[in-house]
Amino acid sequence: MPTSKLIDEIVENIRKNTINNLTKKLDEVDVLILDDIQFLAGKDKTQEIFHNIFNDFYSKKKQIVLSSDRPPKELDLLEARLRSRFGIGLVTDIKKPDFETRMAIINSKLREKSEYLEYEYIEIIAKYVKDNVREIEGAVNIMLTRKNLLGQDLTEKDIYDGLEILGYNVGKESLQDAKIKDADTMNNKSYKSFAKILEYIANYYSISISDIKGNSRKKEVSVARQMLMYIAKKHYGWTLEKIGTYFGGKNHATVIYAIKNFEKLLKSNTTIYNDYHIIIQDLV
């Protein structure tokens, strides 16, 4: 709960002289998670009661998770005895999500809503929306709202327009300029060219892109997906994490299995071997 809500409950129970009721209520709790613990500052009686609550949880080996806007030792307006107790456990700094994490968050939000955006558009959003999950989710929501209002797939311009509405200074940067090319991208291969391969292979096998990026287990879809993962690793130098993210959040084990299985198919299946080399000669 927010610390402000706990403060309200403490104040209300003090007013009614029923603080034991709050103690009994918390006694049934196994894990106490409080957001913005710094709001206890300046509230001496509330700090005293929370000190007792904390000690009770600690003595019973129950879990307490606290968040604040600074480390425990810098919470100057809290009593020293509280600051020292807050520093007993694991203290960690929650930083802004990095680029790969932002990509994963966007993909997760899209899956929750059973929606789809082009990989390069997800990249653009992840490049500009950096601060926190709430802002990332807000950006995803506005893009999907624009998509539904337009009644068609979004364009690069729609993505930039949406970001400008949210207050991001994107200027007139092109899609190519906006792309993040990290050390894993080799031979100057761009995400756009890989998207072309994805489209080509989907047409080649007469299947949809959404099936390839989804969880379909049809034989022709699985072969196409494994071929693309193999190409992404062998010819583009993508990491397993990047490949998994591109294909809808697949985990490392799934990607490794797909690549190794396709390597076996290349050696044992003449048709797949020929298909692969036709595609490679045409596009890579």
UniProtKB/TrEMBL annotation:
Residues 193-262 form the Chromosomal replication initiator DnaA C-terminal domain. It holds the Pfam family Bac_DnaA_C. The keyword Nucleotide-binding applies. Gene3D superfamilies: 1.10.1750.10, 1.10.8.60, P-loop containing nucleotide triphosphate hydrolases. It comes from the Bacteria. Belongs to the DnaA family. This is Chromosomal replication initiator protein DnaA. It comes from Candidatus Vampirococcus lugosii. The lineage of its organism: Bacteria, Candidatus Absconditibacteriota, Vampirococcus.
